[in-house]
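Cross-posting from the chemistry board since nobody answered there.

I work mostly on the small-molecule side, so proteins are not my area. We synthesized zinc ion and want a rough idea of how it might sit in this target. Sequence and SMILES are below. Is it possible to get a predicted 3D structure of the two together?
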Amino acid sequence: MTRRRVNKAENRAFHKKFQPTSVLARDRHRGEIVSRNKMRCFYSPEFHLDLPKGHPFPMEKFEVSKNMLIESGVLKGEDVLEVRAADAHVLRRVHDADYLSKIYNGHLDLKEQIQLGLPVTPKLYSRSATEVEATRQACYAALQDGVAAVLAGGTHSAFKNHGENYSVFNDIAVAIRDLQVQRPGIKIMVVDTDAHQGDGTNNILHDDPNVFTYSIHVGRNSPSSSDGSMDVETVRYVEGDMYLKQLFTTLAAALDVFSPDLVLWVAGADNHRNDRLGLMRLDLKDFIRRDEVILRAFMRNNIPVAILYGGGYNRQQEYTAKIHRNTVATAVKISKEIPR
Ligand SMILES: [Zn+2]
């Protein structure tokens, strides 16, 4: 396949859409963000769930990436805030009581367990509810500070009444429903750049005019089974340059038609060329470019962003945590570039 580079003119065209003079920098955003001096990151040791040996989910990535961020000086200890599990009434904003009860009591049948991909243990409920709470708190922190991150999250394949592909509860949808209760009329965009479609998120939120769901994913790996506001399918094994061009063009188009008060970004680390499940061919440089363009586009226009990890199943184990770490580090870097 001929590789096509994203040229400078295309980059300029994308950035031009996000100049602070554009319609995106509406007055109502100004004054909402009270501080850019910090970037709160939400974490809990409870994110960890013991898995059988050989299980493909890299459960260690949460702790490893958090340690990388602190040891490299990107974050200070006080930037990392520990959260507890979300209350059941918060989870009920999205999930059926029967489903919550099934997870709580470990009553999934074999088919449901296979669909979920995680063992049903007593910790599964609290672990997943803790991840939801981290995302919920990160959204409110992003509204105050301009940017915040969950050192986990992005479980976009959870539906109201069942879980799929390691996603037990849909942290994105629960956080959005909670925000809508606390801030009626808030307009929220989900930007999902994980290599798989945000199918659960789309399914839960598809008829809400105040939510725009954007997902870019490999069409023949993760078919658009549940329509969102904009689903962009890449070819299988898409190279970085082509992916980035497709991403920038379509995200700009999404922002032409929807102007959010808050963005929940499911970053995704499974777009890497050595990922077991993603079927894309990005390298580390492509990720950094993706992260820089997305974060600058929103942060420079005073659109708050809550960053969520999403998936990552790299054959080189340390890469998944490293990609997540880099995304958070890029956000810290860009928040320092913005005048206070
Ligand atoms: Zn994925």
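Reply from a structural biologist on the board:
Welcome over. Reading the output above for you: Confidence is low (pLDDT under 50) at residues 1-6, 20-31. Strands lie at 40-43, 80-82, 147-150, 188-192, 211-218, 230-234, 238-239, 262-266, 280-281, 305-308. Happy to explain the token format if needed.
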